[in-house]
Amino acid sequence: MVTIFRLVLSCLIALSITVGSYAADKTQIRELLLKHYRLERPEGPGPFPAVMMVPGCSGFDADFQKEFYNGVQSQLVALGFVTLRVNSLAVRHATSCWQGIYPADGANDIYIAAEYLLQQPFVKKGAINIIGWSWGGAAALSALRPAESQEAIPVDAVVAYFPACNYVQTWDSEIPVLVLVGSLDNVAPYSKCEKLFSSVPQPDKITVRIYDGAHHAFDNFTLPAEMQYRFGTLGYNEAAAKSAWKEVTNFLRK
Fold this sequence. Notes:
The protein is an alpha/beta fold and 254 residues long. Helix content is 39%, strand content 19%. The chain is built from seven helices and nine strands; from the N terminus they run αββαβααβαββαβββα. It has a seven-stranded mixed sheet, sandwiched between helices. Helix 6 (190-197) links the parallel strand 6 and strand 7 (206-211). It is globular.
């Protein structure tokens, strides 16, 4: 009994330290995020709808990711969206999420980025969205569950490509969610998401598209059709990528 009490007490202390640390560091994190934002926008005064981009575990700057994220950002701008990269790894001087960067960190950064976008006169209020990939998808979903000190995140929709759902807790939100996954994904298998989604109070807000024969990172055109990575198999699937992008554009235009 004493052992259990000590364990619970240590957990509560750790939680209080974590919450206090975040509150103390929020100003610093906001300043660091601002330095690493990459905002691109359509021509004209706006206001325009916006999309926050949240990368996978390797971040925006990994060699096999740079061209891909550049391409996505350019396409979104061409469609009339303000785009903002939320670079949680750069803020923490990390090159991988495995260096102790958790989806909860990304979720907190998303809140700060959303506040930043709301302050911009060229951003349409009530039309701020998130697109996250893998780790970033988990961060985007995590942002739907606000901490006790936070209000509901002011976003209109969330798109999660092959999210790492085992790092996400259930949420209760009216915000619509689009999830895009490959049937062959062994890095972030959909079975983890299926278990999570079954516990969400409003599952009707979640739309899932599963692409047969598609691996993790199936939308990354810089990858070969199949490539062994340290955590599983990656691979570009043109048919899945095009179908998923059509889903994304239709979803964000609603």
